[in-house]
Amino acid sequence: MTRFRYSCVSVCLLGLLGFFGCGQNSGSVDSKRAQLFPNPPGEDTTPAKPLNADSDLIAAGTSIEVETLETVDSETTPSGGFIPVLVIADVKGRDGKVAIPQNTSGVLIVRTASRKEGNSDLDVALYQLTIGDKSYLISNGGVNLATLRFQEEASKGAAHRSVHLGKRTPLKFVVSQSFQFKR
Questions:
Q1: Does the structure show a pLDDT above 50 at 37?
Q2: Which end of the chain is more exposed for a tag (fewer CB within 10 A), N or C?
Q3: Which class in CATH covers the domain with range 57-180?
Q4: Distance separating alpha carbons of residues 113 and 22, to the nearest angstrom
Q5: pLDDT tens across 99-154, in order?
Q6: CB of 120 within 8 A of CB of 74?
Q7: What pLDDT band is residue 157 in, cutting at 50, 70 and 90?
Q8: What would the 3-class secondary structure string for the chain be?
Q9: 120-159: string of b/e by CB count within 10 Å (b at 16+)?
Q10: Domain limits of the chain?
Q11: How far apart are alpha carbons 110 and 79 in whole angstroms?
């Protein structure tokens, strides 16, 4: 009976670790999770191998799906702020090979976050991705290539006071023009 109890506890802890994403490191470390689930003594703490891609050309119209790793709110997140994200699905290049692997870490930039005359506005762009051991800007000559804009109208009620994207919110960006990662 005691052995069974320990097994259940181990399975539950492993389930929690999987639920909170404490398995393989994709290049960014969430310090809050690291404090909650420190590595046991003797466990290998070598970072996971960087994710590599087989393609480097992204066509216009390609979707890049990410999820936020922090909360974004048009009232509290400043314009120019950076929000960490994680790619949630492989992105294929023009040649059909993986250009951006799932679990690639990245960053959103908040282009504008404002509230005027009862209307809230949040404009974000996919700013940077880290593929392998290199970081790439998702822009062409300073022009962001993957943007999203959200608006809320306060006259619709209290729940519409600001644009609010919670932690783990999935976002789907569509690339506006072709670009190539310089590798």
A1: no
A2: N
A3: mainly beta
A4: 32
A5: 999 999 999 999 999 878 778 899 999 999 999 889 999 998 889 999 999 998 86
A6: yes
A7: low
A8: CHHHHHHHHHHHHHHHHHHCCCCCCCCCCCHHHHHHCCCCCCCCCCCCCCCCCCCCEECCCCEEEEEECCCEECCCCCCCCEEEEEECCCEECCCCCEEECCCCEEEEEEEEEEEECCEEEEEEEEEEEEECCEEEECEECCEECCEEEEEEEHHHCHHHCCCEECCCCEEEEECCCCEECCC
A9: bbbbbbbbbbbbbeeebbbbeeeebbbbbebebeeeeeee
A10: 2-36, 57-180
A11: 5
Would you say how long the chain is, in residues?
A: 183
Q: What is d(CA 133, CA 27) in angstroms, rounded to the nearest whole number? A: 8
Structure tokens at 19: 């639920």
Phi/psi of residue 3, each to 5°? Answer: -60, -40
- The identity of residue 8, as a single letter, is C
Question: Do the beta carbons of residue 129 and residue 109 sit within 8 Å?
Answer: no
Provide φ and ψ at 74, rounded to 5°: -65, -20
> What one-letter code names the amino acid at 101?
P
Tokens of 46: 């070598």
Check residue 154 and give its pLDDT.
67
